[in-house]
């Protein structure tokens, strides 16, 4: 994937860093939200 990039440009590095941060925070937020939903799930099935 990065074989052709001898030296990535600053713009490419910023895009890659932004994408990585977005993925990490999205994963953490989804995991935390899913954990809260399981912990707060009503026992009567509603």
Report what the structure shows.
There is one protein chain. By secondary structure, the protein is an all-alpha fold. The chain contains one helix and no strands. It has one helix at 10-39. The protein is rod-shaped, with a radius of gyration of 19 Å. It starts with 9 loop residues before the first helix and ends in a 7-residue tail after the last helix. The relative contact order is 0.08. The model has no long low-confidence stretch (mean pLDDT 84).
Outline of the structure:
With 46 residues, the protein is an all-alpha fold. The chain has one helix spanning 10-39.
Query: Pairing-aware structural class of the strands and helices?
Result: mainly alpha
The strand count comes to 0
First CA to last CA: what distance?
A: 48 Å
Instruction: Kindly report the average pLDDT value.
Output: 84
Q: How helix-rich are the residues, as a percent range?
A: 55-70%
Q: Outline the biggest β-sheet.
A: none
The total count of helices amounts to 1
Looking at the structure, what is the overall shape? rod-shaped
Helix and strand element order: H
Low-confidence residue ranges: none
Radius of gyration: 19 Å
Q: Beta-strand level of the residues, as a percent range? A: under 5%
Secondary structure layout plus pairing:
Layout: H1 10-39
